[in-house]
Amino acid sequence: MKALVSVKRVVDYNVRIQVKPDGSGVATDGVKMSMNPFDEIAMEEAVRLKEKGVVSEIVAVTVGSAKCVETLRTALAFGADRAIHVVEEGEVQPLVAAKALVAVCGKENPDLFLLGKQAIDDDANQTGQMVAALLDRPQATFASKVEIAGTKATVTREVDAGLQTIEIDLPAVITVDLRLNEPRYLKLPDIMKAKRKPVENTTLGDLGVQAAGGLKIVKTASPAARSKGVMVKTVDELIAGLKNKGLL
Amino acid sequence: MVGQHAEGKLDNGVAKVVCAAKAVGGDIEVVVFATAGAAVAGQAAAIEGVTKALHVDRAENEHPLAAVLAPQVVALAKAGGYTHVLAAGNTFGKDLLPRVAALLDVQQVSDVMAVHSTTSFDRPIYAGNAIVTVEAMAAPCVVATVRLASFQAAGTAGAAAPVEAVSTDAQLPAHTRFVSLAAQKSERPDLQSATRVVSGGRALGSAEKFKEVMEPLADKLGAAIGASRAAVDSGYCASDMQVGQTGKIIAPELYVACGISGAIQHLAGIKDARTIVAINKDPDAPIFEVADFGLVGDLFQLVPEFAQKA
Ligand SMILES: Cc1cc2nc3c(=O)[nH]c(=O)nc-3n(C[C@H](O)[C@H](O)[C@H](O)COP(=O)(O)OP(=O)(O)OC[C@H]3O[C@@H](n4cnc5c(N)ncnc54)[C@H](O)[C@@H]3O)c2cc1C
Question: Atom 34 (ligand 1): residue with closest C-alpha?
Answer without folding.
Answer: B259
